[in-house]
Amino acid sequence: MSKGGIIARLPKVDLHCHLDGSIRTATILDLAKKQNYRLPASTVEELRPYVRVPLDCKSLGDFLKRFEVFYPLLTNSSAMERIAYELLRDCSAENVKYLEMRFAPVLQRTGELSIPEVTEAVIKGVLRGEKEFSIKCGIILCLYRSTSLEDSMETARCAVKYRKERVCGIDIAGDETRYPLDDFVKPVEFCKKEGINITIHAGEASGPQNIRKAVEMGADRIGHGISLIKDRKLMEEVASRQIPLEICLTSNVHTQVVEDYDRHPVRDFIKSGVKVTLNTDDRGVSGIDLTYEYEKALGLGISLEELGRIIEAGAESAFLGGIEKETLRNWIANEVNNLI
Ligand SMILES: [Zn+2]
Q: Domains, the chain, ranges and CATH?
């Protein structure tokens, strides 16, 4: 079988996937029509450049601008249910067997739509998608860096409330260069006490000190963690404690966390024994899927065998409980071994 054929058939695990950033262009158009909202273009082809960066994008500003075009359309529970459902369909079409989608419900909150209501809408979409497609999905609620402590506490309480309905963890997202993690100690401690899993965007746009802080706060996984490469001692610690990194290659190039794919430290992480997982970040805005990311990884000299181990690491790092995780791990390992 060709490498492309093997990649298509490999079972996939995506642990770092933003629901809003994975919206389809056609859906943006349709939502705008339903909500009577003016977009800068009226066909999918014309709208695409406004909501999706070109594959050779190298600017964080250009990347973030794309979100502004469609963001007002998401303060709506049926829109959130729909995009959650569609994300499961899109992921299952490329053989993603386990997905953890994340979003910050505080960003969709309005006078009429509460944080728990936004969460319920997404849960509904996920449950509908799981019923129809061969995929399992967890939901991670993001605390958002530019919002208040009370907002973060409300999101944290929401994670606890819906833990039996697919919510499997919390994240801290948003601009890490401007908002210190110290502001999030309270909600993170609350979640830790409740047994909620924690992942934190750290060391993406800022230095290793943020990764150190995330580790001290008890993060179970690190979102990106690219600047770990600048602190060998911390890298050894992260490797020996097997704290997984959620690596998203294309996103890091698009937002200029790394200059180009070749300069991405993922191979050094693997060589140093760091537990690496490969993920998409923003499927829609980046115009990619996990198949594309796996191909990019092979292009960087990562072998098929190493890719197999990366997928197994994804299953091992899933925010799932004992027996569920065991079942996923064994199943993924089996499938990978049959193909590679
Ligand atoms: Zn992210």
A: 3-339 (3.20.20.140)
